[in-house]
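Example 3.2
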Amino acid sequence: MTTAELLSFLGLAWSRLLVFPGGACVLIAVWLAEAFERRRAQPALLFFPTSWLTSPLTASAVVLPWLGVALLPLPGATALSRPVDLVAVVGLLEWPRLLAITADLQRGDRTRGVQRLAAALNGYPPLVLSLLLMSLKTGTLEVAGLLRVPEIGAPLQHTAWFWLGAGALILALPPLIEVGPFALDTLDELRPGLRLRTLGFILIAALPGMALLTRDDAEDWWRIALPPLALGGALWVFHSSTRQQSALRWARIYAGLDLILLLALLAAGLLALQARLA
């Protein structure tokens, strides 16, 4: 998917970019997060700090994850004319962290840059393995596949792999969005983009829960809002309780999680192979 193709079919669904799930929805969510977590003695800003407009590169730290959030197939959003790959959305969301890592390494704070790289290495394996487990049931790595929750009476194997992957996707969030023992400070001009990135990954992890609550076209607003709000609250509790703990200890825990997910993926492959040969 080229940039021109992305902008062309988003233009046909402009409300995604300007209203929901992007636009006003993104501005409010990021402003609330910034106001809630602001620790410096500065007046709260209405929208983004002006520093994000200082150069095209820092502006891209907001624009690209904004596009990533706008592409998410949230209930109630305008339908797009073509499917969107998870790889494209994750790539758009990851751009601010790539800039943050580059800025840390180039501006002398190499320790923080290495810590941010370590957090990424702890988050990517469970992210990839969880999405692969979910794809065993959905048969696709499109973003819309996260909404295809197993129906009642679906084969037990498909149901187990899907929800195991959905649970692992939630567990992968702390190192992915840098909270708890993986929390790191960042430059002011990149902070709004990283907030958008955090929002995007929380919404991705909440998609299966939204799909479960909005079955049978029950698209009440609370059914859409409850999963991401509950997930955000749980992450805030996790962050508050583990902020001072060792990241190395949690890295070992995530290595164990990766092993469990890898074994589950291998077991799923063997079962599928046996079923095909039977």
